[in-house]
Each structure stands twice: as C-alpha cells, then as structure tokens.
Amino acid sequence: MTRKCREIEALLSAYLENELSREEAAIVAEHLGECPICLAKKEKMEEIIFRLPDLQEDVPFFLKNRLYNIPEIVEKKAAARLLYFPKWLAAAVGTIILFFNLFYFTNIFPPANREVHSFVSSVEKLVVKTGGWFEKIKESKELLFFTFFNKKSVEIKETGKNQEAINANGFDKGGKNG
Amino acid sequence: MDIADILLKCRNGDREAWNMLINAYSKSVYNIALNFFAERDIASDVTQEIFIKLYHNLEKYREEKSFTSWIFAISRNYCIDYWRKNKKYMANSQELDENISSGQPTPEETLSRESEIEVLRKRISQLDPDLRLILILRDIHDLSYQEIADRFSIPEGTVKSRINRARLKLAEAYMREGS
After folding, report:
1. Which end of chain B has less Cβ packing within 10 Å, N or C?
2. pLDDT at B93
3. Is A23 in CB contact (< 8 Å) with chain B?
4. Would you call B26 and A12 a contact, using CB atoms and an 8 Å cutoff?
C-alpha cells in the first residue's frame, strides 16, 4: 500500500457521502481508476453502508414484557433485600455456635473451656440481674399504675364524700337557718 | 404527551407512562446492544439492565440535556462496562465464531440474507468499542455527525475520521475473508 493509497483511504467515506470538494473528488476518482485495491475497498464500503440499516430489529416480545415489568421486579427485589441474610454472616454465626458448643461441652482445650464456662456464668448472672431489674421495673410500673388509679379513685371518692358533706352541711345549715 | 410529563408520571409509579417510555426507547437501546455484542441473549440482558438502571435513576435526569442523549449515555456506558467485564469470555467466543465462519459456507448460508446480517454484526462486534458505537449510531440509527459529536463530546472531525476507519476495517475484514 502506497502513501497515496493511505491518503485516499482517509477520504473514502467523505467521497461516498459527496462531502468532498470537486478537486478532491477528482483526485480520489483518478486514484480509484488506477488502484484496484482502493477501488475494491470503496466498493465493499459502499455495500456495507447500504446493508447496515438492515441490522435494525424489533424488540422481541418476551423482552418487551420483561421491560414492562421492571417496576414490579425492582419493588420485589427491594422487598427481598429486607429479608436477605448474608451468607457470610450465617457462616460466621454457625462457626461461633459450633466452637462455643465444642469448648463448652468438651474439654479438648482446657483454657478455652474455662473461659467459655466463666463467660456462661457471667451471662447467667447478668440474666438473673436483669431478671431482677425487669421484676423491679414491672413492680414499679404496677405500683405507678396502682397509685395513679388508686389516687384517682381515692380523689373521686373523696370529692364524692366532700360533696355529700357539703350538701349535708348545707341542708343542716339551711335547716338551722330555716 | 411531553417526555417531561411521562417521566414525572413514571417517578410517581404510573405504569402506563412507563410502558410508553418502553415503547418509545426500547428499540433504539436494544439495537445498540444487539449490534454492539452481536448476541441476542446478551443484548436482551443488557437492554433489561439498562432500563433497570434508568428506572433507578429517573430522579437524576436533568431537563437541560435531551432525554435521548441521556438514555444513550447510559446505554453506551453500560455496554462498555459489560464488555470490559466480560472481554475475556467474549474474545473466546468471537475466536470460535471466526473459526466457524472461516470454514466453507454452505450454499444456503451464502444465499441467506439473515446469515449475511449475522456475519456483518459479528464483524462490527470485533471493532473497538468506540468505533462500534459511532458506526452503529451513524449507519444503523442514521444520526448526523453533529449529533454523534454532541453525544460523545468529541469534535465532528474526529467522528468523521472514526466512521471512516470503522467502515474501512469492516471492508478489509470482508476482503481478507474473500466474500
């Protein structure tokens, strides 16, 4: 391939699309008349440009349906993500449980066994303590409700009694006055 | 209905507006993907992923830019990303295709217009990604040089020279094969 061929190649598309000046087009046409390789390339390019629009295709029916359903797919994926429990987390939890049981029930590695047992006893203590707290909270809650309602009922009763006493006094007074 | 109205309705979960959007743009996106990868299965998956991405990013669209340019930018970026991630596998499959197509074609194959189209598509999918996309937009989607230059943010002259290079490479590939 000569230098001239490379120069002409760079102009082939513009030549085919009639975008060259008259002089440039004449130079290209002259070269194409002399060089069969460049002429073959030009003809092949023409054929390709003519054929390329045929590459357009309609969207397949199944794909169009999938595209229509994208909002649904996205919503389902978002809902599934909420329930998703990562595999690595499951594996980690499983490993911890396995090793915990191994060291708790067997004495293959005494220091670990001791540690696990002390950990379990501290957890038990904590549970007992928190149980105590819970009971206290429960009691105090009950006490609070009890006092509140009791107070209210006592107040109501007292106001009722007072009213009765006032009425009684009024009658008495009225009686005395009258 | 205006595209801004359609997008607003899509954002509010209007299914009819979404279907209108699919009817208007799915063909262009699918054809970009199909001619970029030359594989119907990949093109279908890529088209679906592009529209899922679009659905997630509807809020990000700004009206200063045309919607067609925006959807094209998403398609282009996704196609190039997918191609980069699966380059190794695709190179192997294309080598395989090359071996098959270099064999003597049957008379039916030679005459069949569909197989010619498939061969042309395969040839396009072997070009560099940027040349591929520019050629697809110019010669398949019939966009002007100026429109392509705007979408790629490159000078018009560069678009012209790339198109010429892409066409030349295709012509040379056919001439090497002797068809």
Report:
1. N
2. 58
3. no
4. no
